[in-house]
Amino acid sequence: MADLSLAKDKIRVLLLEGVHPSAVKLFERHGYHQIEYLKTSLSDAELKEKIADAHIIGIRSRTQLSDEVLAYADKLIAIGCFCIGTNQVELDAAKKRGIVVFNAPFSNTRSVAELVLAEAIMLLRRIPHKNAMAHQGGWDKSATGSFEARGKVLGIIGYGHIGSQLSVLAEQLGMQVRYYDIEDKLPMGNAVPVSTLDDLLSEADIVTLHVPQTPQTHMMFGARQLSRMKPGSALINASRGTVVDIDALAEALKSERLSGAAIDVFPQEPKGNDEAFESPLRGLTQCILTPHIGGSTQEAQENIGIEVAGKLVRYSDNGSTLSAVNFPEVSLPAHTDARRLLHIHQNRPGMLNAINQVISESSMNVSGQYLQTDEAIGYVVIDVDSQDTQAILQRLKDIPGTIRARELL
Ligand SMILES: NC(=O)C1=CN([C@@H]2O[C@H](COP(=O)(O)OP(=O)(O)OC[C@H]3O[C@@H](n4cnc5c(N)ncnc54)[C@H](O)[C@@H]3O)[C@@H](O)[C@H]2O)C=CC1
Ligand SMILES: O=C(O)CCC(=O)C(=O)O
């Protein structure tokens, strides 16, 4: 366990996968200048070496922060996922080590919804195939199998931020929206919830997936679900590559049961732009293949950079864990006239007593105390009026069950 009472100019920030420069600017504006910025993700070995020195790391969807990798992250206090999905991080392992994880839950929502709507229109008009033919010198000027979006049924699986945003856009185009979600969700506009996935599949002209990667969604869309789709309908997946059985989809496209597909995410994705992309879908011209760029627009990336870097800075400067995805949430006022001590511990009986015992035995006045717990950990923030906090911090660190204790400087 490496505990921290580091001055800001000693805090090292490692930013991977070409996160938007807006993140770098924000860190610098707040006095963080030890920033290593890399355009790509890293191999496991490189990641383990670099993460050992980092206090804060920023990643997108490629970097896998497993328990094994986090074991090297002795100094790490926070992880920023510059995206929506956080499945690439072992969240409980990070929590167990006292590492807070943040993401950007809706900065790229609109970008994904727009891409999916555009793909729905392209698929209804059979554009992928006509486009591929024209590139080969072919000329398929025929209306056969081409339809307007107006009046067609869009079936949305997962009616969260992206699904519901898409629902609004699709209705503006005159589509009829049906959705399936495991939770009760407020229907937007005239969208209609359906009670089973099969109901949705039997009605939809276009089916689109917007679920997170979870054990329940792993391969949730396979041969059986494909066989329940309307003949000639099309499938879009811009959620996660583990959700759809790609071999079964390739079969459904080859047999022409489906008229097309648009796939943005894959079970195996290249680590960088210089690695070859392999997939059974390659060469199937009725399938739009995109390299996981659903959220890759200038607007989304710039906003994500600002949002996630802002959360990391707030945590580092002030201790606030508001909107953390794996940690008890504490929103804290500024601590201009006080020293602030943070204590992260296993949630066992007697912890708060032990902390308060240490404080009460000191001569310090407490000007504020904040506590949040979940089933696994507790997070206590104590504002004190003393300049002499080092001995107290050491005693707090020594309390059995302490995961991390540090002072904000
Ligand atoms: N292709 C890309 O570049 C991007 C992909 N994504 C992916 O899209 C996913 C969805 O994003 P948001 O809409 O923001 O998430 P969200 O959390 O707002 O919505 C997800 C919805 O799926 C529902 N759901 C969960 N399990 C389900 C199941 N088994 N069956 C049906 N519904 C289920 C949830 O109840 C929730 O309503 C993200 O988790 C991420 O993996 C997000 C952004 C960009
Ligand atoms: O832009 C990225 O790197 C990943 C986008 C994504 O999949 C997400 O936001 O969950």
From TrEMBL:
GO-annotated biological processes: L-serine biosynthetic process
Domain of life: Bacteria
Enzyme nomenclature, EC number: 1.1.1.399, 1.1.1.95
Leader peptide range in chain numbering: none
Catalysis performed (reactions): (2R)-3-phosphoglycerate + NAD(+) = 3-phosphooxypyruvate + NADH + H(+); (R)-2-hydroxyglutarate + NAD(+) = 2-oxoglutarate + NADH + H(+)
CDD domains recorded: ACT_3PGDH (cd04901), PGDH_3 (cd12176)
GO molecular function, a single term: NAD binding
Pathway it works in: Amino-acid biosynthesis; L-serine biosynthesis; L-serine from 3-phospho-D-glycerate: step 1/3
Record has rRNA-binding as a keyword: no
Domain ACT: residue ranges: 340-409
UniProt keyword terms in alphabetical order: NAD, Oxidoreductase
Enzyme class label: oxidoreductase
A family per Pfam: 2-Hacid_dh
UniProt KW NAD keyword: yes
NCBIfam families per UniProt: PRK11790.1
Family, similarity comment: Belongs to the D-isomer specific 2-hydroxyacid dehydrogenase family.
Record's function text: Catalyzes the reversible oxidation of 3-phospho-D-glycerate to 3-phosphonooxypyruvate, the first step of the phosphorylated L-serine biosynthesis pathway. Also catalyzes the reversible oxidation of 2-hydroxyglutarate to 2-oxoglutarate.
Official protein name in the record: D-3-phosphoglycerate dehydrogenase
Protein's organism: Idiomarina tyrosinivorans
Source lineage: Bacteria, Pseudomonadati, Pseudomonadota, Gammaproteobacteria, Alteromonadales
